[in-house]
What we know:
Helices cover 24% and strands 27% of the residues. By secondary structure, the chain is an alpha/beta fold. The strands form three sheets. A nine-stranded mixed beta sheet has the order 1-2-3-12-4-13-17-15-16, with helices on both faces. Strands 6-5-9-7-8 form a five-stranded antiparallel beta sheet, with helices on one face. Strands 10-11-19-18-14 form a five-stranded mixed beta sheet. α4 (211-224) packs across α9. The longest helix is centred in the C-terminal third of the chain and has 15 residues, at 387-401. The radius of gyration is 22 Å and the shape is globular. The two termini are 39 Å apart. Zinc ion is lined by residues 74, 212-213, 241, 287-288.
Amino acid sequence: MKLEEFLKTSLTAYHATDNCEKILIEHGFTKLNIKNDWNLIRGGKYFITKNQSSIIAFVIGDLSDYYFNIAEAHTDSPSLRVKGEQLIESTEGNRINIEIYGSLIHYSIMDIPLKIAGRVFINEDNKIVGKLIESNVNVNIPSLAFHQNKSVNEGIKFSIQNDLLPLAGNAESVYSFFDINNIIDADLFVVPDVKPFYSGINGQYLCSPRLDNLVSVWAVITSLCNCNPKGISIACCFDNEEIGSLTKQGAQSSYLPVVLEKINIALNRSNLDYINACEKGMILSIDNAHAVHPAHSEKSDINTKVEMGKGIVIKHNKSYSTDGYSSAKLKNMLKSNKINYQDFYNNSDLVCGGTLGLFTSSLLSMNSCDIGIPQLAMHSAIETMMSKDIDSLQKCCNVFYNTFFNCNN
Ligand SMILES: [Zn+2]
């Protein structure tokens, strides 16, 4: 699957997980069930999903050493979450009742094509089954006209409960956008439906919804497909990073530790082996980084300006899992593989955003580095980055999976 198709069709975390599953199956990975005993072999490639929205894939190496190398990213993006099936009536057309999911730039979602997507639950063979779904038609959120809001260009504050409701026409309910009957309940979102496009004189910029963090998901999954580790290489794509990761399928849950324990049991390894595998391995927490904005360089650190096109960003802040040791280990790896990198420090007057890194590194007590590639307009409906940085990230992940760090810190 090409990156552009991945970005366009991964409308929600459910769709992103489904796309990852397709890529992995195409590359010979076997799907496991958490409730079963696992029969794992050297050289085997496996994956497991949770809640249809988080996925962990792993490759068992030749086991000439035993360690866990974990690359992680998040499947969710800021959007509008649908509140029930009932529409809000209006003579101009009924509107969809929503709340905000994550820290969305509100104005960016106005006047662009949107879709309703997510999953619906129905009864099938005496079980409740979740089906992925997306509306065939678009909806949109019309702005208030300039003439009715002449101060609009001096800054806008939206009422989420009134201004950000998508217009649905004469639909009777949210469910009438779908062909499935007897829906019991659902997890639905209104999301940008915009095809990725290239801009700039040489097409150097890639612009798309959900670049944060689907480019990282795409890189950790595709680069896992052709790695050859000594120990065990693991790709984790977690849902719910945008709302704090504290869900059963999120990075703060027991999902990853449980999967690692099951791998350990299936390979007949001891508890001590498990502890050492965490100690010797490394985590790479991957999420996009802020490039210096051409109109607002004052928002970046005084000394370090992260630039698009200049490769991997190593993030340093108390909100990140990177420390001097993990950064030094990673820099050695990047240097010896001729992969460009740059350091990120936050402007000390601004609050730095968090990632998955601190959650998983503290849960497993593992060395970890927070990295990403630079982008502009993070959390806008359409974000901007340079596609050559995505190649660097893919290469970085592939080398990472094949590296034995033998950490001793
Ligand atoms: Zn992110």
